[in-house]
Design brief:
The protein contains eleven helices and twelve strands. It is α/β, with parallel strands linked by helices. It has an eight-stranded mixed beta sheet with strand order 4-5-8-6-9-10-11-12, with helices on both faces. It has a two-stranded antiparallel sheet with strand order 1-2. The protein has a two-stranded parallel sheet with strand order 3-7. The longest helix has about 40 residues.
Length: about 375
Amino acid sequence: MSTLPSGRTQRCPLKSNCFSSSKTDHEWRLSNISRFTAAPPSSADYGRSAGLYRNPTWTRPATITPALTAASRTPYPGGNSSVGYREWLRRRLGDAAIVAVVTMAAIVVIAAGFRMGWEDSFIYHPLPLDETASRSLLAGLPAEDHTFPTGDNLRLHGWIARADPAAPWLLWCHGNAGNISHRVDNLGLLVQQGLNVFIFDYRGYGRSEGQPSEPGLYRDAEAAYDYLRSAEGATPERVVLYGRSLGTPIAAELALRRPAAGLILETPLASVAAMARTVIPVLPIERLFRTRFDTLARAPRLQLPTLVLIAERDDVIPPAQGRQIFEALPGPKEMWAIPGARHNDTHLVGGAAYFEQLTGFARRVTDTAG
């Protein structure tokens, strides 16, 4: 026997509870997923042969899977026809299944693409630099071409620009696009401010040999540091590691491998995974990346004085990532948000205040270290 919503009882044709999972009649099982919205039906509306409440205004709790429940919540436009309702429900579940299949197919295609090299093209955007253009760009700057070896037998290319033998040295790890020639205006302004600068191209960038990779870029920074010390006699107390954008995790890792007076992180990224979530938030593609470049994970181990420079209107890396890194730093630290600056114009929009922050920090930490 089962109790009808009106309070009366009526025997179930299957001789069991009408809402039990043991029923075999398809129509009785469908009665479990009726989702309606007003008063219960009378006993006349209760269809013994069909096993359905014919009144589309009565609500019964769903006892089926979330997918069925979600599908049944959408108002049924077909009136009281149980056949029409079943067809509508089938179509609703079919739409959900199509969405699921398309999503899974997209993930499979992206995963296959990453195995074919999409990952590197997502992260690295190097451009070549010929020797003629290099000489032309350096005209008027107190800078010279240098090449130096890496630990895995590649030759890298960089520029050394000197302002004053007693001035601090900036070892510059640049961002992910172009080459050192795209930083020549900023380089000249830093030298004008009285800083010595060594900027170099990672493997695969500019005139440097090889192909970029995360372990390779860490080796390149080590090689540049060692070359600066040997070629220029720069002591650790006079060296400030300077990373911009993709260069920030590289400079942070170098600070864990080599001694330095200070560290500057400009427009820093928290990690490649964080950037993947920013660029494609609708798919969990960050799990597909082998490359990490995780500045945020390194931050708690950085004990040297650190300056974090954030572009207030950064259109590439969310400023919140820089703030996360700053909060995670345990040692002496400073942070400045450059008013109105975007990702690639910090030195232009920041102007004199930008250079005061950067050069002032470099002088303070090297004077303290010395």
